[in-house]
Amino acid sequence: MEITVYKRHSKDCEHKADRTFRRCSCRMMLEWSENGKRFRVSAKTRSWTEAEQRARARMQDAHARTIGEQPKAGEPISLERAVEMFTAKKSGKHKQTQRKYQYTLNNLKAWAARNGRHYLADLTESDLEKYQSSWTTLKSSYAKRNEQERLRSFFRYCCASAEIKLPYNPTSQLEHFNVTSDEPEDPYTEKEYKAIVAAADRVPTFTGDVAERVKALIAVMRYGGLAIQDAAILERSAVTPATVNRKPCYRVEIRRSKTHTGVNNVVPKEVGDALLKVANAERLALFHRDHAGP
Ligand SMILES: [Zn+2]
């Protein structure tokens, strides 16, 4: 592996045409190819000499890894190397588990490369916090918690390993993601909920008061915590006026069909009013055959 060092000049640098110009104070970059992929990362220095030293350290590390050399005592361990050692350790685990670790650690490596963290010990607690806040594609707290658990396990290994001897675990102070057993996997945000309700007005086959019924159905699912099969067959008698903290509201009381457990939830007054407004004589019939189409 050969690493090229070069200047990424600022827009107003007078040497910006020449990326080999050494004497300005612009940022240094490292560039190389590995497994057919091109990497360009900040050298985290503005000095050409220092950037060259960092490039050399990376090249030595890559070389040691290709020939399978064990790290020498006292030698700083790259993240790449630590991941390899950890992966080797986990090679007896189930394929699915190994894949998950690979996914987690590849993401960490990519983030570290983008942020110029080469050595394992370069990763600080605040790095891990920043990294964690970049997990925008992981929607549920379950997924985040699992991702965090795998990271913790990797860093625990790095601390316990006699070869790596990481002095402190940057994940140990991270806040845990709160996951309770009855938390829905992906609760809708307020924006998503509004979009769902608004969609009821745009369905061409929802004529007459059907859109209103569907909105009432959505509202009772949300506020009453009902599953669709329970909400759809809600009896008028299940919705009764109530008062909570001297504020008028409604109580929705049913026996859930799927789990045979009871629901006794308070819903806001507007939701109860809307429910009763669209109610038929006995059943609310929020969602009967005629409208369940196609
Ligand atoms: Zn420059």
Can I get a quick summary?
The chain is α+β, with helices and mostly antiparallel strands. It is built from ten helices and six strands, in the order βββααααααααβββαα. The strands form two sheets. A three-stranded antiparallel β-sheet has the order 1-2-3, with helices on one face. Strands 4-5-6 form a three-stranded antiparallel β-sheet.
Neighbour order of strands in the largest sheet: 1-2-3
N- to C-terminal distance: 61 Å
How many distinct beta strands?
Answer: 6
Q: Quick one: CATH superfamily of the largest domain?
A: Tyrosine recombinase, N-terminal domain
Number of helices: 10
Q: Which structural class best describes the helix and strand composition?
A: alpha+beta
Q: Do you know the CATH architecture of the largest domain?
A: Orthogonal Bundle
CATH class of the largest domain: Mainly Alpha
Key terms for this structure?
binds zinc ion, DNA polymerase, domain 1, hpI Integrase, Chain A, 294 residues, elongated
Describe the protein in words:
The chain has 294 residues and is of the alpha+beta class. Strands 1-2-3 form a 3-stranded antiparallel beta sheet, covered by helices on one side. The chain has a 3-stranded antiparallel beta sheet with strand order 4-5-6. The protein folds into 3 domains: 1-69; 71-180, Tyrosine recombinase, N-terminal domain (DNA polymerase, domain 1, Orthogonal Bundle); 190-292, hpI Integrase, Chain A. Helix 2 packs antiparallel against helix 3 (95-114), helix 3 crosses helix 5 (141-160) and helix 7 (210-224) runs antiparallel to helix 9 (269-277). The chain has helices at residues 48-66, 79-89, 95-114, 125-133, 141-160, 190-199, 210-224, 228-231, 269-277, 289-292; strands at 4-8, 27-34, 37-42, 239-244, 247-255, 262-268. It has 10 helices and 6 strands. Helix content is 41%, strand content 14%. The structure holds zinc ion.
